[in-house]
Amino acid sequence: MSTTLTEDSAGGAQTVRRALSILRLVACGQERGVRLIDLVRMSGLNRPTVHRLLKTLIQEGAVEQDTDTRRYLIGPEISLLGLARTRRFPLLTVADPYLRELADEVGDTVFLSIRHGHDSICIGRHTGHHPIQVLSIEVGVRRPLGLGVSGVALLACLSPEESTSLVQQNATRLEVQGEHAHDVLGSVEQARALGGLAHKPAGLMPGTSAVAVPITGTDGQALGAVTVTAMAERLAEQRFPMVVERMRQAAAAIAARHARVSDRHLEGQRSRSV
Questions:
Q1: Is residue 6 part of a domain?
Q2: Where is each IclR-ED domain found (predicted)?
């Protein structure tokens, strides 16, 4: 009897879901890669299952393993597949000129992140004119919501019940990254009280700082988050209010532009359907 799984079988669907879950976790490792032990811990699957999935993904070019570190990284096949939808992020197209202007004005690095399921993903980055730029993450970085100020700002726009549920579901992944769910929820609560503003005086890199504000749609939901990273002294008390005010202005302009573009798109769809 053939052991091939059909797309309608429960086993086949479960395998696909597990493989995609592993791919998302591997993507979090960027160029550093992810250890097998961490993939087992974060996925909740047993070691043989994870190893078997990785072996198949490697054969298909979706994952590769560093021969020196033995860590797993996203393979070339995934990058090539992504080229088929280069215009998949309309928010980036809308936001790009505002992000570039913001980076020019504040002089530091500006990021655009969005929520995707349980993760925040950086989809845009612009550097400023200051001699020292804090390039804390790369475009394409996927992190569990709550890790970093962008994720906190995105969570702060959700209801307390939904944000708590998401953080609890991410608890193991956050712990692997050195964060605790309780601390993340405290940061989310504080950001919610500040209208979504998330500030981390001590950033991911020593001597740096980061601040994020949400881009909210007309329904109050977060479209994304704008983040500025800089040397800590550049986000100190004297300069901090100016940077935040300029970030909020940029976020509001992006939201307004996004609404106009969305309205025109809907009008176009209605006219074509008549």
A1: no
A2: 77-260
